[in-house]
Design a protein that fits this description.
By secondary structure, the protein is α/β, with parallel strands linked by helices. An 8-stranded mixed sheet has the order 3-1-2-4-5-6-7-8. A hairpin with a 6-residue loop joins strand 1 and strand 2.
């Protein structure tokens, strides 16, 4: 088990927005996407702190009192960066958590997903120990998705369908960026797609913000959305109505 080591960017012991209840959140290092609004561009590289699955489990387990006596009021989320780039490590980590009845969630953009037999073998093994997938659907139109992230979204759409077919619970997340991801037609297509999935428990709108702008400046990377405003309450309300979120 300890032959797999994970590269971790940071850890949050009392997360409240990364799945149900209070969460221990491990942010993995490494991501292939280059989202124009990324608030953690420092996770793009593969430099970080190394953990074995056992070491990270022991760190998470210290915070189990936050999850309640029966461990039903929270759990552990692995986020990123992109956790599927370190799929073997996450699988071994989740195995340890499930041995102790801890709720597990993975927050992913789905970019590494592939229908290749070797990947699906690893992915199916991970799903055995995964209670919830938080899937970021950044933009439904494939060309717009590529312009926004550097990659099209065909395999990400396949991943959502795969999770639905496997009866894996999902939360769908969409970052609302005015003039970028708020096109009514694209949102309508996204709504129709989400409604075609069997296991979506929740749809979340994440309002775009520029709180990570200083990180781009520190890394010397030009930020391309400087003139894009944050969404208003009316923008969010309109998007929820289009997506059918009550």
């Amino acid at each position: 088990m300890d032959r797999y080591k994970g590269i971790i960017h940071s850890i949050e012991s009392f997360g409240s927005v990364d799945g149900p209840g209070v969460r221990f959140v491990a942010f993995m290092q490494g991501c292939n996407m280059r989202c124009k609004y990324c608030h953690n561009p420092e996770t793009w590289s593969k430099d970080g702190e190394s953990y074995t699955p056992q070491e990270l489990f022991e760190k998470a387990w210290k915070y189990r009192t936050y999850w309640g006596k029966d461990l039903k009021n929270g759990g552990v989320t692995v986020s990123g960066g992109e956790p599927l780039l370190q799929i073997e490590f996450v699988t071994e980590f989740f195995k340890l958590l499930k041995e102790h009845n801890v709720h597990t969630a993975i927050d992913t953009s789905g970019q590494p997903f592939s229908t290749d037999k070797e990947f699906l073998k690893k992915f199916d093994e991970l799903l055995k120990y995964t209670d919830l997938v938080l899937l970021d659907l950044k933009e439904f139109d494939s060309e717009k998705h590529k312009n926004l992230t550097g990659f099209d979204n065909s395999n990400i759409i396949q991943m959502a369908q795969y999770l639905s077919d496997k009866n894996i619970p999902m939360w769908i997340r969409h970052v609302l960026v005015p003039t970028v991801t708020d096109n009514e037609e694209s949102l309508g297509r996204l709504r129709d797609f989400i409604q075609s999935l069997k296991t979506v428990e929740k749809v979340e709108i994440l309002p775009y913000h520029t709180l990570g702008l200083f990180k781009w400046e520190k890394l010397g990377i030009k930020y391309k959305l400087e003139d894009v405003p944050t969404p208003t309450a009316e923008d969010i309300k309109r998007t929820k109505e289009i997506l059918g979120i009550k």
